[in-house]
Amino acid sequence: MNKKSVFWGLLFSTFMSVLLFFMGLSFERLANSPRELYQVYIDGKIVGIITNEDELYNLIDKEQETLKEDYNVDKIYPPSNLEISKVFTYKSDVVKAEDIYEQIKDKEPFTVKGYEVTIDKVSEEEKDITLYILKKEHLDEAINSTVKMFVNEETYEAYLNGTQETEFEVGTLLEKVSIEEKITVKESYISTEEKIYTTAEDLNRFILFGTDKVSGTYTIKSGDTIKSVAEAHRLNVIEFLIVNPEIKGENALLFPGQIVNIGLIDPIITVVTEQTTIENQEIDFETQVKYDNNMAYGTTTVEQVGEKGINKVTFRIETKNGETTNALRISSEEIKPAVDEIIVKGGFNVVYVGDSTYWAWPTLKPFVITSVREWRWGSWHAGIDISGTGHGSPIFSIQNGVAYSVGLNHPSMGNYIYINHNNGYISIYMHLADVFVSQGQTVSKGDTIGTMGNTGRSTGTHLHFAVYYGDRPIDTVNDIDPLTLYQ
Question: Which of 289, 280, 237, 282 is nearest to 260 (CA)?
């Protein structure tokens, strides 16, 4: 073999060796190329790598049949703090989906698909409320049921259907129904550690009472009436009927052994209504007293018999959760004028101060009494609330006396006046916009002492008015005779 042949033989061997070397490297790289895997995290920490994320999801759903039954759902989802991300890696330490499931099944709460509901409270003093539901229609049903607690169901249905009677001489037209709070609903995966409302009934109970605890109940005894049961449990009649919607009306009969709800409601939403009311309102006559020194002391004659008048009045009324918060008189047409009664009393040189027989009314007429002396959701309301005459309308002293206590900007009473009528009677006027008397000032019956307002802890423009005889509140017709003070 010549040298030339040897050279080409060595060159070919070297070439083949190099070619085989690089081919080997290529085959090794192909054998060790990165794979598409799934990296699992809990609270941001890696807990393992799996080959298929659906395998883990399906395993969780398969193994959690009890949760499906508890929540009546078709699918259970991973914990909210579990994340899975796709990766391309050379790593070979892959674990089974079962291994990941075993790590989390007793440590991390699983989730169900539902909705996060946020109720933004209007008052800065109240915290926003977040609750969880499975179906949006449950929220709609619960809110609708709550509305019907405060709005007559028949009237509400006619309002929704647009079938209300709009042309009437006397009656009420429901103009608007709304929820004061802003409610937002967001689809979410909810931890099974949260309280999740699975029925409209449970959700409605929470919305109405502000708690998941069962409200108090009472077993009716012989002789019980709606009024007596309500007052015994710090409720008024309307409130009793709200928590017992199956009892139709305050005159409904109760029977021994009947179980009724007596729980105090604390709604987490505020149902606001606006309505126009037209009514023929009786207007009480005023009583004028004359003194005749030619008549024997202690004698009384009627110079002119009083007659009540009638006004056709239109009010615009706002309520919140069944309580009237604002009443504005839109118009008033006099149908029949009231005729003052004139009384003549005898008695030589006798001075009558604070005559407890004849009193003035503290506001303009017509008016609306929005609340009386009664329980209001566990708190005693110790007077009557008068509205309908407008913000800034005059407030009158009901009798001669002395303004013995006058205050401004009280946290609850707002601007207020106490008048001592020098005969055991005291009258109280609260939430005034303006005060026109000073402490110690003498006032006469019918004097303008202030204006109607909305100061202090007040739900709207009105006068809180009360009369006491000593420490005894006046409430009945016979307490101040013959005046029916609360008509």
Answer: 237
